Amino acid sequence: MTTPLGGTGPVVRLSDVTKTYGGKRNRVVALAGVSIDFQRATFTAVMGPSGSGKSTFLHCAAGLDRPTGGAVLIEDQNLAELSEVELTRLRRDRVGFVFQAFNLLPALTVRDNVTLPLRLAGRSAKQEHVARILQQVGLSDRTGHLPGELSGGQQQRVAIARALISRPAVVFADEPTGALDTRTARDVLGLLRTSVDNAGQTVVMVTHDPVAASYADRVVFLADGRLVGQLVSPTAEAVAERMTHLGAWGEQPSGVR
Predict the structure, then answer these.
(1) Is residue 209 part of a domain?
(2) How many folded domains does the chain comprise?
(3) Domain of residue 183, residue span
(4) What is the pLDDT of residues 141-157, one digit of tens each?
(5) pLDDT in tens, 196-255
(6) How far apart are CA 9 and CA 36, in angstroms?
(7) Domain assignment of residue 140, yes or no
(8) Does any domain span residue 54?
(9) d(CA 249, CA 251)
(10) 30 part of a folded domain
(11) Which of 103, 34, 8 is nearest to 257 (CA)?
C-alpha cells in the first residue's frame, strides 16, 4: 500500500463549508454548511439532482475554488492559509483530477501525457513507476500512441494514469464515465476501485449514474447545497431509490463523517 506523505487525520475534511454567489439582491447559496470527512483508501460517490451543488462541492474540496465560509483541509493543511502559489503546488503534488472531458494534450504521446504532472513539478519520472502505472491501466502497449489514435475508454485510462502518477493524497473524479459506453465505463470504474483496494488511493467521484455510484464504499447525497444522507456499501438499486425520494431526506443532518 502506498505510504501517505503527510497528515494524520482524514485525507480531506470539509467543516461547515459555505459558498455563495452574487450580491444581496441576487444571492445564490451553492453550499450551505457542508461538513464531511474522506478517509484514506476509501471510494466515495457524491450524488444529487441538477443544481444541488455537486460541482461547487468538488471545486471547493479540491482547492479549485475558495469557499465563502468554513474550512477545507487536505492532509491537515487548511487551504485558506495557503497563497495562490502554495495552493497551486498542493493541487499539483497532492491532488489528482479525472474529468468527463479527458483533457489530454493531442500532440503528446500516452507516456508524455501521463508523466506531464511530474515534469511540471520538476520531478523525474522513474521508468519502473511509469511502467507500473501504465500496466495498471492496461496501456503498456500504447505508450507511443497519440490521444487521437485511442478510443474514448483508452483516453480516459490515460487520464486516470496521469491522475495517479504523482501518488496524490486524493483523486477527484467529475463524471469520469459520462462520455463512455456502458462496458467501457465499467472498466474505468473498475480501475478506480482497484486503485483504492490495491494502492490505498482515496477517490471522491461526482456522478449522476447509480451504477457508477455502486462501485463506491459509500454514496453521499446533496440537495440544495446541503448533505442530506448517505448509503454505505451501496447497490445501484438502492442508490436509484434514494435519488427518486431525495426530497424526503432534506431534514437530515448536514454533517457526514
Answers:
(1) yes
(2) 1
(3) 12-103+169-256
(4) 999 999 999 999 999 99
(5) 999 999 999 999 999 999 999 999 999 999 999 999 999 999 999 999 887 544 444 456
(6) 12
(7) no
(8) yes
(9) 6
(10) yes
(11) 34
